[in-house]
Amino acid sequence: MKILAMLMKNSRIPFVKIAKALGISETAVRKRVSKMEREGIIKRYTIEVDAKKIGFEVVALIGIDTKPESYMDVLDKMKKMQYVRSLHASSGDHMLIAECWFENSAKLRNFVKKLKRLRGVTRVCPAILLEKIK
């Protein structure tokens, strides 16, 4: 868990640094990370991007509900949409939650209209993220 915590904080941290912090050998760290990769615990390594610094002024979480028979069709269409950065199945207030990045609020409005027109979509609830706190 300590290795995972360190990698989650910085996926580029050298194994030597992890080993030194935990008081184990670099080889032990390398073996444990390899095992976690094989077992699917670590799926991939990624970066966190500040959307605003690359021109996306509006970041939104959008809740989407569908008719049950349309769920898979809507899901397949949304996976291909330009502004969708991540898409999650949910058991909360909405069936799907999409994180979307937009250059401006007009693009968000147009995207929401497009979602509402998809066959089987019953509700679209966007929430604009103001600031990342953690």
Strand and helix layout:
Layout: H1 2-9, H2 15-22, H3 26-38, E1 58-66, H4 71-79, E2 84-89, E3 96-102, H5 105-117, E4 121-128
Q: How would you sum up this structure, described in words?
A:
- The protein has a four-stranded antiparallel beta sheet with strand order 2-3-1-4, with helices on one face.
- It has five helices and four strands.
- The protein is an alpha+beta fold and 134 residues long.
- The model has no long low-confidence stretch (mean pLDDT 96).
- It has two domains: 2-38, Arc Repressor Mutant, subunit A (Orthogonal Bundle); 51-128, Alpha-Beta Plaits, CATH 3.30.70.920.
- The radius of gyration is 19 Å and the shape is elongated.
- The longest helix is centred in the first third of the chain and has 13 residues, at 26-38.
- 16% of the residues are buried.
Kindly state the percentage of residues in helix. 25-40%
- Spatial shape: elongated
Query: Which architecture of the largest domain does the CATH hierarchy give at level 2?
Result: 2-Layer Sandwich
| Proportion of beta-strand residues | 15-25%
Total number of helices: 5
Tell me about the largest β-sheet.
4 strands, antiparallel
Could you tell me how far the N terminus lies from the C terminus, measured between alpha carbons in angstroms?
20 Å
Mean pLDDT: 96
Written as H for each helix and E for each strand, in order along the chain, the element string is: HHHEHEEHE
CATH fold descriptor of the largest domain:
Alpha-Beta Plaits
